[in-house]
Write a structure and sequence with these properties.
The chain has 474 residues and is of the alpha+beta class. It has 13 helices and 6 strands. It has helices at residues 24-47, 56-67, 77-93, 101-115, 120-147, 154-243, 248-277, 282-294, 301-309, 321-329, 348-369, 405-411, 423-433, and strands at residues 334-340, 374-381, 385-393, 437-442, 448-455, 471-473. A 6-stranded mixed β-sheet has the order 4-5-3-2-1-6, covered by helices on one side. A hairpin with a 5-residue loop joins strand 4 (437-442) and strand 5 (448-455). The chain is rod-shaped, with a radius of gyration of 43 Å. The protein starts with 23 loop residues before the first helix and ends with a strand.
Amino acid sequence: MTEDRTREPRTSARLSAAARKPNRSDLWLVAALTVGSLIFAVLYEGSGFWEFKAPLWVVCVLSIAVTVPLLWRRRFPNFVAWLITTLYVTAQILQMMEPGVSQIVLFTSVYAIGAFRYSQRAAFISRCLLCLAILIYVIVSAALQFQDLGDLTFVQFAAATGVTFLINTVFFGGAWLFGNRAWKQRRLLEELRAANEEVREQEQQLTRQALDLERVRIARELHDGVAHHIAGVGIHAAAARRSLEKNPDKAKESLQVIESSTRETVDELRALVYTLRDTDSPADVTAATDATAASGGQTAEKPADAATAGSTKGNPGLGDLPELIESARRFDQTVEYTTIGAPRPLTPITEMSIYRVIQESLTNCSRYAGAGAEVDVRLRYGSTDLEVEVSDARSAGRPASAAPDSVQADSGLRSTSEGLGLGIVGMRERMNALGGSLEAGPKSRGGWIVRARIPYPRSTAGHLSPESPAKAST
C-alpha cells in the first residue's frame, strides 16, 4: 500500500520522523513475540495438537518473518499490516504457521494502522480493504469446507462458520476500535501540549509587553516631571547670566527660582523612585490601567477605581495645579487658570494625566512663547467628558508658528532647542490610554493651543452637572 503522507493540523497526532523510528521498546516487543511464536511452534509440533505440512525449521522461519516487520509499524503502518496479513493468511492456508502468538502479531499490525496513521482517509480505506480481504478469505474457506463436510451436518457446519465469522469480526473490529482510541488519545495529548505552549508564549509576550509599558511609563514620567523643571532651570540660568552685572536683583531672583526648581525636581525623582519600588503603590495600578487600554481592551476603569481606594502618594493631581500655575508664572508669563462647570470626582490616574498634560503644555509655552506671553489654562467639566485647554498668545518678536519640539520633530523641521520630540506624543498616549483624545496645533490668530478631552470614569459618570455651571478663576 502506498502511504498517504498528506500534512494534517498540528493537533492531528501525527508522529515526527524521529518518533516513527524503531526504538528499544519495539525491539523488546518483537523479541518477545518472536520467542513466544517459536515456543508455540515447537510445542504444537511436539504434541501433535496442530498438524504442520512443512518442516519445523520452515515454521520457525515464517514465525520470525511475520513478527520482525512490527519494528516498522510506526513508519509504514499500512504496508506492515498488509505484509503481515498476507504472510499470515498464506501460511495458514498452507498450514505452515502456529495459530497462537501469530494472531497477536496480526492484531498488533491492524491496530497500528489506526494508532500511527498518516491520515484518517488512508487509514480508513486501508482497513476497509483489509477487512474485505479477510472476509473473502473466510467465505472461500467456508465454501471449500462445505464441499467436504464429512461427518458434519449442515447445522454444525453453519454453526462453525458463524463462530468463525464472529471471532474474526471481534478480532479485527477490536483492532480497529483500539487503534482509533490510541490515535484520539495522542491527538488529545498533542492539543494539550499545543495549548500549554500557547499559554507559555502568551505569558512571555504579556511579560514583554508589561516590561515595555513600564519602560514607556518611566520614560514618560521622567519627561513630564523632570523636563518641566530642567527647562525652567535652563531659562532662568540664562537670564541670571545676562543680568548678573547689570541687574543683580533680577539675577538673584532667577537663582532662587533655579534653587526651587531643582528641589522640586529632586522631590519628584524621589517620589518616582518610591512608586517604582513600592509594589502596592498606585503606580502599579496606573501601569495596569495603561496596559489594559493600550491592548485594545476596555478602558481601565476597575484598576482606576482600585487606585481611588488606595493612596495617591507620589502622584500629582488637580490639587497640585495651583502650585504648578504659580511656578509657570515665574517665567514672566501671564497665566490665567479657569475652571468651568462643577468639578466632579476623578480617579487618581485621570487627575495625574490632566496634571501632566497641563505641565507639558506650560513647559512648551515657557520654551517657545517666551517671556511676556499670555497663557490661558481652562478646565471644562462637561456632561460626558472633561476638556483641558492650554493656549498661549506669543509676545512680540516671537514667531507664531513656533511649535513644540515634538511637533517639529514629527514634521521634519529642526527646533532651535534640543527637545526629544516626546512631549505631545506622551500627552497623546496618556489620553488614548484613558479613552480620550488630544489636539495640538497653531491658532489662527497666532500662538499655540493644546486641547484634550477625557471621558469621565464609569464610577463618576452618574454625577450630573448642574444646570448652571460654576466658574472659578485664579
